[in-house]
Protein: Isoprenyl transferase
Amino acid sequence: MTKFCSSTLAVPQANTCVPQHVAIIMDGNGRWAKKRLMPRVFGHKKGVDALRETVKTCDALGVRYLTVFAFSNENWRRPDDEVSFLMGLFLKVLQGEIERMHQNGIRLKIIGNRDRFSAELREWIESAEARTANNAGLTLTIAADYGARWDILQAVHRLQQSEPDKAASFGEAELTPYLSMAYAPEPDLFIRTGGEQRISNFLLWQLAYTELYFTDLLWPDFDAAAFGAAVDWYRGRERRFGRTSEQVQATSSC
Ligand code: IPE
Ligand code: IPE
Ligand code: MG
Structure:
């Protein structure tokens, strides 16, 4: 039977269990294509297949939340044709996959700043989220035009607007409901493919105590076996949340 770990800082646990929330930076699409003498965008297309497989794997393992970085605030700096391709691909994936996701009980969430998206893309995002909102299966979050600094700032601004009395003095508990991922526990396991060992402005707040796993595999090559290897590595970690090893072992319940 699958057991889940809590990822809240308040409940430290040993983690012989399946991560409840996995966050992934899907990196390396361009290099994957370049190695095959193909245009970079070919790698992005293949990347969608890897994402589909990862969603299936998470579902099968009992992971409850999968959050993937698809397009960062900084990715607007890429060449115009690559940005347009990525926007078109995002729309196509939403249009082509939402019905199947819904049938599979997936709840889809999109986080990020939507201001620069086309009206059509924004409408599809809204309808995909609404269509799957009541599903009880895996929550798949796609971070698109997302950046953690943007997220923290928008949370502060929304708090100031909605609760001006708290604006002068607020703590973590007052701010976190306004963060984009308020509906999910903090990630237990972070995976970055593509060999870079950096966070690139992804979920800075929520990754405070996440286990960080880096692999040289390029995202289109990331399959169920690679995901399994990351989870196996995660199971070997002792999550202490500031406590001592002895304290953790005395309270471990997983
Ligand atoms: C990640 O792959 C996908 C996006 C950022 C959209 P890259 O496109 O960054 O691939 P590399 O890192 O150049 O190989
Ligand atoms: C991070 O990848 C963002 C996504 C995967 C969407 P990048 O390839 O853009 O990251 P940097 O700029 O090399 O750190
Ligand atoms: Mg990259």
About this structure: The pocket of IPE (ligand 1) is lined by residues 26-31, 71, 75, 86, 194 (CB under 6 Å). Residues 1-14 have pLDDT under 50 and may be disordered.
